[in-house]
Specification:
Helix content: 10-25%
Oligomer: single chain
Strand order of the largest sheet: 3-4-5-8-9-11-12-13
Radius of gyration: 20 Å
Order of helices and strands: HEEEEEEEHEEEEEE
Number of domains: 1
């Protein structure tokens, strides 16, 4: 994880410094005319969301996600309408206070009750599994002044994740962390955004045919809502 974050930070710093040298707003204008424009930028936004999980295998508790833009390309053939293509880094957390996630022999995420997995007298139990993803959103964008509407699809490259269980055994705090959790290597989702003057909301939906976890893992399907802020 630290290596991934270091690479992301380095890419954002390199692209931002290069773009800043070209323009005061840190974006690189490749083509600009009275009718349209093509711009390259880095680190344009961050987002925080809440996952609306659907699963028959466990009870969700406060599952969420975070993403940060790394690179972004705007192609607007006419003023107010165009395409944005980007690269984002995204994490998704799946939490439960009643059930314990664990990895089987194939590193697939499974679940069982906390009482079955750990001693019955433990307290403040919480279980989480997390994904690490590089996403490539392709969005149709409509802009009018400071208002922007986006509709599109994201292609996702999912890296391995981890499972983390935390609880208290008496006064002792215990952390049980297992790395290498397997996610479906490639998948996609639909994405809609609405922003005004640098902040906005988004809606992300994974179709029923799209699996986040590989076959043989626990069953998870979800959509997410959240907020986006310009950087």
């Amino acid at each position: 994880m630290k290596r991934i974050l270091f690479i992301i930070g380095a890419l954002m710093a390199l692209a931002s410094s290069s773009a800043f040298a070209q323009d005061e707003d840190a974006s690189l204008t490749i083509i600009a005319s009275d009718n349209g424009k093509i711009e390259f930028d880095a680190g344009t936004h961050i987002g925080f969301g809440y996952n609306l999980l659907k699963s028959d295998d466990f009870t969700s508790s406060g599952s969420g996600e975070f993403f940060v833009n790394i690179l972004n390309l705007k192609i607007f053939p006419v003023n107010g309408f165009g395409i944005e293509v980007g690269v984002d880094y995204k994490t998704m957390d799946f939490n439960s206070k009643e059930d314990a996630f664990f990895l089987d022999g194939d590193k697939k995420v499974q679940v069982k009750s906390a009482k079955e997995a750990y001693p019955a007298d433990i307290t403040k139990f919480r279980s989480r599994f997390r994904s690490n993803t590089f996403s490539a959103p392709v969005m149709l964008k409509f802009e009018a002044g400071t208002t922007s509407i986006g509709l599109g699809v994201e292609g996702n490259l999912n890296l391995t994740g981890r499972v983390k269980n935390k609880y208290f055994d008496g006064d002792q705090k215990i952390k049980d962390i297992k790395k290498g959790a397997q996610f479906t290597k490639y998948n996609y989702n639909f994405l809609a955004t609405l922003s005004f003057d640098g902040s906005g909301v988004y809606f992300r939906y994974y179709p029923k045919s799209v699996s986040i976890l590989p076959e043989g893992s626990l069953n998870v399907g979800f959509m997410a809502v959240g907020v986006i802020f310009d950087m």
